Structure formats: structure tokens, C-alpha cells
């Protein structure tokens, strides 16, 4: 995915929705207390260590609230930040700064939290031929931004949406097996009936594609062998023990790429990588990440 996939139109649409949510009825406190002509300077500061992500989005929030605000970005996305790091300065109308503050920080804190957590996973498997990937377990309507943050943290993006590849999961198999289809027949049908648009979609993804790729979720080494025999291109080992993962990897023996998924945690991700899988998808990168502590402080103000 990467930064190029996070378009200005996407950013503006999401930012505008967030501002309507927070400023729908105005800012009662600021409007009651702060003179409309008061000018000032605010600093955006890191309060803990991590990887910065979302500073351009935070800048967009300030610009959408008041185009006259001047934002000086001092640290770019992807950089390491530490307690006390000065990330940006915002100068201009104090009321506008205060109205934009919470929405700008919400984006910056959450995306930096995702990038930081992703980076911890990436570092944990450093030196091994495996890729850390995200999932579709994202905040509704924020997927493009959250997947961007994963990329900033050094991870890679799995499917952007349901149209971005074929992943045959347990419920698909249950539905089709009830109609008498074998796994081999399911894989054959998926490849035959896949939308033509998938070829172009896969060319934009992080997975190497020779044709429409078929991924199959399995829960046992025996199912992994069956999926490999059926011609699956990628086999997802779902919630398997390390012993079963090693057995499945040995059984597949290079006939398909292998993804580990389900219950992945930082303390065991390296052991999972050492089983020989190609990808490790981690839902926790986006579905339960802790926001990075970042604040905005008004450092000076004056009335014109």
C-alpha cells in the first residue's frame, strides 16, 4: 500500500467527518472564553518513545479548521520519537488551534501507536525471511489510514478489502462442503470464477502474483497438506501450535507460500517466524493498539 495509496481525497474525507463529529455544534468553551483575534503558538510534543505516523494528517486537520494556521512540521512520518521530541509547531488564531487540537491529536496518537507496535513486531523477527502483515480488523472507515500506519512502522499490507484477493476461510469451506464440494473443487472453482479485476489488484499488492492467487485457511497440518495438493497459492495456518506449524511447513515443502495467523503476540512472534512461514498477519496491530502519548501545548499567545 504505502503512502502513495493514501490520497488527498481520502484524507480530506476522513478528516472532515471527524471534524463534523467533534465540532458539529461548535466549541462552546473556546467560543465563550477565547477572544476571536487572539494569536498564539502551540507545540506538538511526544511524551513517550515510538514511531511517528500521521503528522501530515494532523496538519490537514489544522488546515481544514483554519487555512490561515501555519504548521511547521519538524519530524516526518517514520522517524523515531522520544519523550520531549518536538514534532511540530502551529502558529495563528488560538481559537482555531484549540478547535483542531483533539481531532489532530486523535489521528496522530492512534496512527503513531499502530506504527510503533508494528515496528516492535518487525524488530522482533529481524534477520528472518518473514514479513509482518496487517489484517482487515481495522476501525470502521479508518482502514486506509491504519494500513498506512502499518506500512510506516515497517509492516506490509494484506488485503485492503474483500475485493482485493481470494481468501477461502473456514465458513466458505463449511458452506461449500455442505454442497458436496471437495477442497480441490473449491480451489478450482475460485480460480476459474475469480473476477478479472483481481489480476490488476494483485499487481498492486505486496504478494508476488503469477495469476489470480488463491489463499486457503486451514487449522491442522492435514488440512494444510490437502490445501497444497488442491493447488492453493497461499496457505494460512490459523491458530496452530508451533509443533503443528512446523509440521505443516514441512508438509507443504515449498509448494505454496505460508501465512501464520491467529493469536499472534509479540512475545511469541519470533518463534512463529522460526517455523519457516513466509508471512505473519497480526490483527492486534490495528484492532487493540495503544495510542502513543502525544500532546499539544500552547506556548505563547498575544492579542492583536
The number of distinct structural domains comes to 2
Please state the second-level CATH architecture of the largest domain. Alpha-Beta Barrel
CATH topology of the largest domain: TIM Barrel
SSE succession: HHEEHEEEHEHEHHHEHEHEHEHE
- The proportion of residues in beta strands is 15-25%
Describe the structure in your own words.
It is a single chain. By secondary structure, the chain is of the alpha/beta class. It folds into two domains: 3-121 and 290-303, Aldehyde Oxidoreductase, domain 3, CATH 3.90.1170.20; 126-287, Aldolase class I (TIM Barrel). The protein contains twelve helices and twelve strands. It has helices at 8-23, 28-33, 55-65, 94-124, 143-152, 170-177, 183-193, 197-203, 221-229, 242-252, 269-273, 284-287; strands spanning 38-46, 50-51, 70-73, 80-81, 86-93, 131-133, 166-168, 214-218, 234-238, 257-261, 279-281, 294-303. Strands 6-11-10-9-8-7 form a six-stranded parallel sheet. Strand 10 (257-261), helix 11 (269-273) and strand 11 form a beta-alpha-beta unit. Helix 1 packs across helix 3 and helix 3 (55-65) runs antiparallel to helix 4. The radius of gyration is 23 Å and the shape is elongated. The two termini are 46 Å apart. Mean pLDDT is 92; it is low at 199-210.
Amino acid at each position: 500500500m504505502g503512502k502513495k495509496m493514501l490520497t488527498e481525497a481520502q484524507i480530506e474525507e476522513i478528516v472532515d467527518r471527524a471534524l463534523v463529529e467533534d465540532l458539529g455544534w461548535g466549541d462552546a468553551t473556546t467560543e465563550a472564553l477565547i477572544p476571536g483575534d487572539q494569536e498564539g503558538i502551540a507545540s506538538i510534543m511526544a511524551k513517550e518513545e515510538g514511531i511517528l505516523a500521521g503528522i501530515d494528517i494532523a496538519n490537514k486537520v489544522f488546515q481544514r479548521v483554519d487555512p490561515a494556521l501555519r504548521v511547521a512540521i519538524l519530524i516526518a512520518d517514520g522517524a523515531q520519537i522520544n519523550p520531549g521530541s518536538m514534532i511540530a509547531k502551529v502558529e495563528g488564531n488560538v481559537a482555531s488551534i484549540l478547535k483542531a487540537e483533539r481531532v489532530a491529536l486523535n489521528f496522530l496518537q492512534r496512527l503513531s501507536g499502530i506504527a510503533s507496535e508494528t515496528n516492535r513486531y518487525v524488530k522482533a523477527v529481524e534477520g528472518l525471511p518473514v514479513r509482518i502483515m496487517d489484517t482487515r480488523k481495522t476501525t470502521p472507515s479508518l482502514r486506509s489510514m491504519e494500513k498506512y500506519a502499518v506500512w510506516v512502522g515497517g509492516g506490509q499490507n494484506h488485503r485492503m478489502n474483500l475485493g482485493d484477493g481470494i481468501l477461502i476461510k473456514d465458513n466458505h469451506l463449511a458452506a461449500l462442503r455442505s454442497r458436496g464440494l471437495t477442497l480441490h473443487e473449491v480451489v478450482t472453482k475460485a480460480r476459474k470464477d475469480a473476477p478479472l479485476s483481481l489480476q490488476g489488484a494483485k499487481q498492486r499488492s505486496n504478494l508476488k502474483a503469477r495469476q489470480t492467487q488463491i489463499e486457503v485457511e486451514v487449522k491442522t497440518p492435514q488440512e494444510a497438506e490437502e490445501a497444497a495438493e488442491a493447488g492453493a497459492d497461499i496457505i494460512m495456518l490459523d491458530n496452530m501450535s508451533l509443533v503443528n506449524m512446523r509440521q505443516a511447513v514441512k508438509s507443504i515443502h515449498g509448494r505454496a507460500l505460508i501465512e501464520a495467523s491467529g493469536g499472534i503476540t509479540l512475545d511469541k512472534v519470533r518463534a512463529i517466524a522460526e517455523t519457516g512461514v513466509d508471512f505473519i498477519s497480526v490483527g492486534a496491530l490495528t484492532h487493540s493498539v495503544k495510542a502513543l502519548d502525544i500532546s499539544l501545548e500552547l506556548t505563547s499567545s498575544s492579542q492583536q
